[in-house]
Design a protein that fits this description.
75% of the residues lie in helices and 0% in strands. The protein is mostly helical and 232 residues long. The longest helix is centred in the middle third of the chain and has 26 residues, at 128-153.
Length: 232
């Protein structure tokens, strides 16, 4: 049976909207949001300037769409996928999958461009800072908290505060990103990043291991007993 390769290629080809966003990300990273023009963007996409407005009402809407598809927004969207929901009772597998997906995201040149754009423009464009910081980070944090709350309720981890546990997990990953992708002159090779991820996951999971609170209480009780004077 013959395969229609032309149809498959057409299905895989980016849409005009996707091409606009891809070229806009490149343009904003190179020229800055203020220095980028709709005319230049249309030229890069290969369409008329007037055609841009069939997809977006203006430049601010394009930047908002870029924010909606990168950074915390993409992490939050992953957390809602079936492959993550299948790990709702597997904390170690969940944490490792989330970390590995972040490594892929960090290694994507588009993510580097996005971070450059959002760092420069989040205070200049009305609404972008609030949309980025409040809506997307809040959404990602809420979803992460739900997972850790589920782990705790199922007795799979020990924590008195699922929200802070989720924040602690994310904070360690942020430091790994800073160390291996942001602060150095060049990004670390992938094996070195994975090694750092594995070391951190081993440590983090040991902190929240189920039964840890009970073990601590037992050790505390024994210590208090040893410290008391023997009865007369």
């Amino acid at each position: 049976m013959a395969v229609d390769t032309s149809s498959a290629a057409e299905a895989a080809a980016p849409t005009t909207r996707e091409r606009i966003l891809a070229e806009a990300l490149n343009l904003f990273a190179q020229s800055g949001y203020g220095g980028a023009s709709m005319r230049e963007l249309a030229r890069r996409v290969g369409i008329r300037e007037s055609s841009l407005y069939n997809h977006f009402p203006g430049k601010a809407a394009i930047l908002e769409a870029i924010v909606s598809e990168h950074g915390p927004a993409s992490s939050a969207s992953r957390l809602e996928e079936p492959r993550y929901k299948q790990l709702a009772r597997q904390p170690a597998e969940f944490c490792r999958q989330f970390a590995l997906d972040l490594v892929e995201q960090w290694s994507d040149p588009r993510e580097h461009q996005f971070q450059k754009v959002i760092t420069a423009e989040r205070n200049r464009v009305p609404g972008i800072r609030a949309k980025f910081a409040d809506h997307f980070y809040a959404r990602e944090q809420s979803l992460m908290t739900d997972y850790f709350r589920g782990f705790a309720l199922a007795g799979l981890i020990s924590t008195t505060d699922p929200r802070e546990t989720a924040r602690l997990f994310a904070a360690g990953l942020i430091y790994i990103r800073l160390e291996h992708y942001v602060m150095g002159a060049v990004s670390s090779p992938r094996p070195k990043v994975i090694e750092a991820i594995d070391r951190y996951l081993t440590f983090f999971l040991s902190l929240v291991a189920a039964g840890r609170d009970a073990d601590n209480k037992k050790r505390k009780t024994k210590g208090e007993t040893r410290g008391k004077a023997a009865p007369d």
